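pinned: reference chain
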Amino acid sequence: MSLGGMRERVGGVGMFLYRWKLRVRAAGRRLFGSGRGAPVGMLSFIFLLKMSDPTGYEDAYLPRIGLTTNAVGRAILCNTETGEEFFPIGFSHTNSAQDEDYLGSKHSLFTPEFYDTNRWEEVLTDMERFGYNSIRVFFSNDVASTNMAGVVMPTGFGGRADNSVSGVDPVYMDNFIDFMARAGRHGIYVVPVLNNTPPTAYYYAIRDQYAFNPDYAERNIVWGTEAQLQTRMEGWRCILGYIKEKDEGLLSNILCNLMCGEVRAQANYQPFTKTTGFVDGPNGQSYDMSSDADRQGLFNDGVVYWADQVGQAIKSVDPDALTGVTVGLYQGDIGQSPGLYTTNGIRMASDYYNNHPALAAPLFNSGAPGLDLVDVHVYPWRDVGAEGRLLASMIDDCQLDTVTDKALVAFEFGAQRNDPDYYPASSCYLGVSPSLVSIDMHEQRQLLLDRGFRSVLFFAYENLGFDEDVITAIEPYKQIYSKLSPSLLDWPLEEPDFSDTFSDGDSAGWTLSGGGDWTVLTGDEALYQGDTAAARFGTIDGLVVTNFSMETDIILRANQNWAGVQFRKTNPGDGPFDSGYTVFIHRGGEVRLFDASTLTTEAAVMMPFRPLDTQITLKVTVVGDTISIYVNNRKMTDVVRTSYASGYCGVVSFKTRAVFDEVHIQKLP
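pinned: its structure tokens
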């Protein structure tokens, strides 16, 4: 199923009915306190429709994403309405304010000072156009106070520092709710992250109910102390409780609630600087600090306990919510041998990077009912020839693909800017070649999927205050952005029956007929047809298919006529008017199907953009007499035709210049 499949099953009338069902269900909960909405009779149904108090967001509701188990026993995400696997593909969106202007301010996406609905519409529209379905965002914990530079900080989700009444600021939260609705209308799920609870009077009052534990310091306080655990739990209860009160139906737009940006063990701080005595873990167990196994166990057990408790708090507000814990995996040095680098007995990612990597991951299989996903952040520094730095070794060494009871995802993966050996500075933007990065990220994403990860979100879509060490997806000209389009994934995750990326520089395996100016572009590694006189077509040699999926990237290089794919044609030398079907992109922005047996065109569907000089992924899936047409991984229409049962296939253009690339064909049962 395609990435857009979850929208296909509830599109049109189905989506309308689905959203009304959520509206009725929400009303049932408000009136009767039912879990998922108790069944009601027809009179009750009519009554609920009248009493459902619409908020204006009903058109934004998405199907709830849940968990299921695949054929090999691995936990995977699924559309709870259809039962089919759901692949979150998208970006982590980080900042909207320049950090240098607001020292210490991070993730200021929904602050009253910066929330820009027009800008978000541009972002979400662009993501939908490329076929993405998920966006990861951060709650800001800033308070409206003056920082060290004398600048007034933006307001985060907790409001002002003196707020002692509520755990959330209504203006901030209303911005977030507006964003959730906008994302839903574009078919995009939201993955919110709560890095820290804000330093407001409300949360300080909770913290101060618990005695200070001197055994923990710095980031170890987050997962190791009861005070921080309780404030984190309350933060999530306040956030989700506010959304639920405003519009419970929008909770289904949240793909997963990530409890923390990254939970870390900092080995050069307490408790790991202790070499004797015992330390109590957050789970109540005692650990011998003279034992390396106990020191490691303190963190591993502590994170699992912490994640379970925070997850249970989230589910106390939204029982259907998915929850996730994030662990970081940065340097590839750990791939060389277990325990290569240690600090105070705790295994490190490198000899200087003192944050603990994802070694707790295998433990997530045992227990922790409050936890659904394990999210791994991957930033391998690529050093040519150093096998220990390769991503596959990192996955093996940390046993990441042993996680089966929880869905294994990578909600943040990317490339480092400061690797001049791999990303040479020549012809680079800010010192990095976007072309090299985009190729590398495409390969890394596929490796993650092949090794059991069921999602990847690139860091970051847009980050106006970006860290100069991190490469963003839009620099420059969205090269990385377009290269990571879901349509370029190897769907399904198996070898296609035919594939040609033209990276070998020739058109071997093709018969290029009808005249034309056919050539393989060496720089762009694509097949180009430059003649505008008549129909020009290329046929794949010897491949006859019946049921299949065919996908290719197409760019119209002239504002003339059309280009597309031809299939089920009787003879290899037949053009689009001789036999078979042709699905093509018209210059005016229409997707059309042509039947050579009747010489008729039908199924004209408008795209939301004009195709000139725009890379478009055109896909057709043919099973029996049903032809399904997709553009940028979004289903446009189904057409039933009985003229041809099987035949040859290829690409075609009519009186226009066109580029074809990434041609993949998969036979279907």
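why pinned: The longest strand covers residues 535-545. The mean pLDDT is 76.
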